[in-house]
Task: structure prediction
Amino acid sequence: MAKDKKMIRFFLSWMRDRAPFLLGYVGFFLILLMISQVFNLERELTRYVLLLLFIIALLTSLVDLLGQWRLVERILHDEIVVSSNVAQVTLQERLAQVSQRVRELEYQVRQDREDLEDYYTMWAYQMKTPIAAGQLLVADLEAGRHKQALTQEVFKIEQYTGLVLNYLRLQSFHEDLLLEKAELGGLVHQVVKKFSIFFIQQQISLELGNLNKILVTDKKWFSLLLEQFLSNAVKYTRNGKISIYLDGEDLVIADTGIGIAKSDLERVFDRGFSGYNGRLTQQSSGLGLYLSRKIADQLGIPLILTSEVGVGTEIRLRLKQEQLSLD
Result:
């Protein structure tokens, strides 16, 4: 069907392009017919000449039509076409120049992107040293409110730096992928432990339900996925509760935080989108949920997010993995 449409479009285009010549043929036949009538030429001879000229014109047109069709097919298959037509030669030369320019620009864009990625990767790794030093200095402080606050802020710096680094790593996701069997409960407990100080400081209760499940995944990327959702839950919850449990094939992370405005729900996974909550609290980078969506897509985990302002937010990770197996 598509090929038929392409052929019809080509034929109509050829007719428009050759219209002056086709009209010239028709005009020539009409002139010959008029001359034969004016000078009373023998009708049989006239019909014979007109028929002969019509056949020649038809064959010439068919040869031209087929030649143009083959030319189009070769161009569509990226074959090199050598033509003696001045207009076509000029067009091919111009097209070659444009193609070369496009390749140069694409190469330059790739180089600029690689340079930028190298810079931010180096920056992220260099940030690890002062972060580690900051953690040691905070650990030496006497227990109290200031120590807890500083511990939280250093942790946030570490998280945001890791966010940038993992965003860059996402460009080569499959080169860094290691699928293995993992116990869901263990992964969840490791992630929760990282945020323990926030549960204490912000008086958030944690409810862990049934997490008894073995899944095939990349532990590092899956843990990062959990971290992003737990980070958001902690960020927007005060004196509330966060629940993590299995509901059938779904891992559910639910909080009783401020919730997400209905107008923002469709865009929360867009890159750079901070939404009403982000503008209100100045805590959103607009990168965390975008990164989460990308990681989930790469791991083959569908996400379902529901939320209501003043009630809380629930994110479901569909962990059904019938198609995954390890040798």
